[in-house]
């Protein structure tokens, strides 16, 4: 096998979004030589697209806010499935992370008296989202990048080189986590997208911060990078994923024109007063307030409208229910024939705010609709519908250290990590999650690396050879051994006889995968459809192994997609298997055949593990699949945190034995 370039670092951070950059800053500040590696250009991570804001209980707009209220809202939003210690740390530490950003140069919008302004969002009791118009993610990334550059300038002064202690490898994709013979992390295997060159970054600590999985679904707000790479990398390294059935469908994506279907319409539109109406002009959300939230939401339009001016004496409008509730309501209205012409519902700000306020508070939305749909949102309603937006499931991590379970030296933070948001994330809680747990991951990765100084784990050459062979397979899809697995229903050995079968087109497989997940494991799920999805995934998995590309390794998007397919198919199987197993409806998982939340499921986590613990894929049975599902009981919620809720409320969520305890 060819010799690949190897570099030594203390900590490697995979991903340069909010979580990755915050982790890298912390690791470098703790003295670790840190490499950041990202698939896109530096600064182009998904975080940059975040619009509405970052949730932190600073109490700037309503002094009633504090970490306990934020914790309560987050647990309610997640229907109590949240890893409660993460929700606690997040609520306690988010304000410090926002103030820290300000000291690093972030320019947030201000209140009249000069404090960081905070806006309303679904599920948050008080105005809590610090924001920069509707371009908050851009400011967050800009600030973190600026901080990285300032650290590199310090390094130049101290050591003569900008990149001696903190280096960014942009447009490079990691395909495997490497381990030593004791199962400890030893680094990553990657390729440069431009040249196709392979290389290895050796390090005893790796932080995965690769974001989400949305590109497995047809209608999504997510960008091209969200192919579930980090989820798959962790799984293949032997770390389990937790609660992958929980996928958030944001209620408001664009539905028209078809070329932009799925692009996000920020929740700030509703936070700032926008209302949802059906084709009959009715504000239908009043009909969809579930029992667990009845006391907290307005019963009439008049009360809901008064809340914007006087939140202390009125209840909030139901347009601001958590996202899962609003998405299901829109879905139901469309299904009942009360949808808009293009299969959504109407979201209107034009009758709620003067045009110049709309343009000032929602500048991106104004331009997005004007340019992409020729709709002037200051004069007419938008048409919106649910879009796949966020994955709550992810790498199972230790709450305090962000260490991935079962693989020493592996850490995960940001959207790729599971647990924090339970069954449904509240808007704004992702940006704060990135900073709180990005920092913690960087800190503990640096400590872990320091503890191994002098005895660094090393991956053997066989692993590198296997990683290189796996990455090159699409160039020889018809070659010997390219496909020895039968398709479902075919006899063992049939594939070898089918020598004349042409290679599969990765783009075609991707489209079929997206359609399958959208139609069969989407916003409303049914047993028979999920079983059908698993059969289809098994077929696609076999065909994906024959996905072939032409040309060479220099910037070859078909090749890149062929490699991403492995990851998307793995995470899709996790979603489908876990969704089939959980026979209740909760947060981002709605079963038509089990429509109620079942308290007996509250203390149950579903873990996905690789069926082949060595991280191999080809050897697994294509029909049985690549994933093994394990049920696990969650640790009891700490009594002082339970005491933050009324007993009557807990009765709605907790399992009987938990209440008894
Ligand atoms: P990302 O920011 O996506 O970064 C992932 C990084 O990993 C990228 O650098 C990518 O190149 C890299 N990567 C991926 N795979 C590989 C690989 N194999 N090898 C190397 N690098 C890899 N949340 C809020 O809290 N508030 C909001 O207002 C908000 N608005 C949103 C608006 C939109 C349109 C969308 C789509 C999301 C929004 N969210 C919001 C959610 C939030 O933006 C994301 O959850 C969050 O940014 C994820 O950050 P991250 O650091 O985990 O991942």
Bin the strand percentage. Answer: 5-15%
The kinds of small molecule bound in this structure are: flavin-adenine dinucleotide
Mean pLDDT: 92
- Radius of gyration equals 24 Å
Helix-strand category: alpha/beta
Record field, number of beta strands: 20
Biggest β-sheet: strands ordered side by side in the sheet: 7-3-2-11-18
Cα-to-Cα separation, first versus last residue: 59 Å
Q: Give the helix proportion (percent range).
A: 25-40%
* General shape: globular
* Helix run count: 19
- Low-pLDDT windows of residues: 479-498
Main sheet?
A: 5 strands, parallel
Biased composition (Basic and acidic residues): 493-503
Domain FAD-dependent oxidoreductase 2 FAD-binding: 10-431
Region (Disordered): 476-506
Protein name: Fumarate reductase/succinate dehydrogenase flavoprotein subunit
Q: What can you see in these coordinates?
A:
Residues 476-506 are annotated as: Disordered. InterPro entries: FAD-dep_OxRdtase_2_FAD-bd, FAD/NAD-bd_sf, Fum_R/Succ_DH_flav-like_C_sf, Fum_Rdtase/Succ_DH_flav-like_C, SdhA/FrdA/AprA, Succ_DH/fumarate_Rdtase_cat_sf. Pfam families: FAD_binding_2, Succ_DH_flav_C. The protein is of the alpha/beta class and 661 residues long. Helix content is 35%, strand content 14%. It is built from 19 helices and 20 strands. Strands 7-3-2-11-18 form a five-stranded parallel β-sheet, sandwiched between helices. The chain has a four-stranded mixed β-sheet with strand order 1-10-9-8. The chain has a four-stranded antiparallel β-sheet with strand order 17-12-19-20, covered by helices on one side. β8 (172-179) and β9 (185-192) form a beta hairpin. α1 (18-29) runs parallel beside α11 (429-451), α5 packs across α16 (557-581) and α14 runs antiparallel to α15 (527-544). The termini are far apart. 55% of the residues are buried. It binds flavin-adenine dinucleotide. Residues 14-20, 37-40, 45-47, 49-54, 136-137, 173-174, 209-211, 221-222, 225, 229-230, 264, 390, 414-416, 427-431, 434 line the site of flavin-adenine dinucleotide. The site of flavin-adenine dinucleotide has 43 residues, from α1, β3, α4, β8 and α5.
């Amino acid at each position: 096998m060819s010799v690949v370039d190897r570099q030594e670092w203390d900590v490697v951070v995979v991903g340069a979004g909010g979580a990755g950059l915050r982790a890298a800053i912390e690791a470098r500040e703790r003295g670790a030589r840190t490499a950041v590696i990202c698939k896109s250009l530096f600064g182009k991570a998904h975080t940059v697209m975040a619009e509405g804001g970052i949730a932190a209980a600073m109490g700037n707009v309503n002094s009633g806010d504090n970490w306990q209220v934020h914790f309560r809202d987050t647990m309610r939003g997640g229907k109590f499935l949240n890893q409660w210690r993460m929700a606690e740390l997040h609520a306690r530490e988010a304000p410090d992370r926002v103030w820290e950003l300000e000291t690093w140069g972030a320019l947030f919008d201000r209140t009249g008296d000069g404090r960081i302004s905070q806006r309303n969002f679904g599920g948050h009791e008080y105005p809590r989202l610090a924001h920069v118009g509707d371009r908050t993610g851009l400011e967050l990334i800009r600030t973190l990048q600026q901080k990285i550059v300032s650290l590199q300038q310090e390094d130049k002064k101290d050591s003569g080189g900008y990149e001696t202690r903190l280096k960014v490898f942009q447009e490079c994709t990691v395909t495997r986590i490497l381990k030593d013979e004791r199962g400890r992390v030893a680094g990553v295997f990657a390729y440069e997208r431009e040249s196709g060159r392979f290389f290895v970054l050796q390090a005893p600590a790796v932080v995965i911060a690769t974001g989400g999985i949305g590109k497995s679904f047809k209608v999504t707000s997510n960008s091209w990078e969200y192919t579930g790479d980090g989820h798959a990398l962790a799984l293949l390294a032997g770390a389990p994923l937790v609660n992958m059935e929980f996928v958030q469908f944001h209620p408001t994506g664009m539905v028209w024109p078809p070329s932009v279907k799925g692009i996000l319409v920020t929740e700030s539109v509703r936070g700032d007063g926008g209302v949802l109406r059906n084709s009959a002009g009715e504000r239908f959300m009043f009909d969809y307030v579930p029992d667990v939230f009845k006391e907290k939401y307005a019963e009439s339009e008049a009360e809901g409208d008064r809340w914007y001016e006087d939140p202390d004496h009125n209840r909030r409008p139901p347009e601001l229910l958590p996202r899962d509730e609003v998405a299901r309501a829109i879905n139901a209205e469309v299904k009942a024939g009360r949808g808009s012409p293009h299969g959504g519902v109407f979201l209107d700000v034009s009758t709620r705010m003067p045009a110049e306020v709309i343009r000032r508070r929602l500048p991106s939305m104004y331009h997005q609709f004007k340019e992409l749909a020729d709709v002037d949102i200051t004069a007419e309603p938008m048409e919106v519908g649910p879009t796949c937006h966020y994955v709550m499931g992810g790498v199972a991590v230790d709450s305090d250290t962000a260490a991935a379970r079962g693989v020493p030296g592996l850490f995960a933070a940001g959207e790729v990590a599971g647990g924090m948001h339970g069954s449904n994330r509240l808007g704004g809680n992702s940006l704060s999650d990135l900073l709180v747990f990005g920092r913690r991951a960087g800190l503990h990765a640096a400590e872990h690396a320091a503890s191994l100084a002098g005895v660094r784990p090393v991956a053997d050459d066989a692993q590198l050879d296997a990683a290189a062979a796996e990455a090159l397979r699409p160039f020889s899809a018809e070659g010997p051994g390219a496909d020895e697995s039968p398709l479902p229903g075919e006899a063992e050995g049939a594939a070898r006889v089918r020598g004349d079968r042409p290679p599969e087109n990765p783009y075609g497989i991707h489209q079929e995968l997206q359609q399958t997940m959208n139609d069969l494991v989407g916003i409303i799920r049914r047993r028979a459809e999920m079983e059908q999805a698993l059969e289809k995934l098994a077929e696609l998995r076999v065909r994906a192994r024959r996905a072939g590309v032409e040309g060479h390794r220099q910037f070859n998007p078909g090749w890149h997609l062929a490699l991403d397919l492995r990851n998307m198919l793995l995470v899709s199987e996790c979603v489908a298997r876990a969704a089939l197993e959980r026979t209740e409806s909760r947060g981002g998982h709605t079963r038509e055949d089990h429509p109620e939340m079942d308290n007996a499921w509250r203390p149950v986590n579903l873990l996905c593990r690789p069926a082949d613990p060595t991280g191999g894929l080809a050897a697994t049975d294509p029909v049985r699949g690549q994933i093994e599902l394990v049920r696990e009981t969650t640790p009891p919620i700490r009594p002082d945190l339970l005491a933050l809720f009324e007993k009557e409320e807990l009765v709605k969520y907790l399992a009987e034995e938990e209440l008894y305890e």
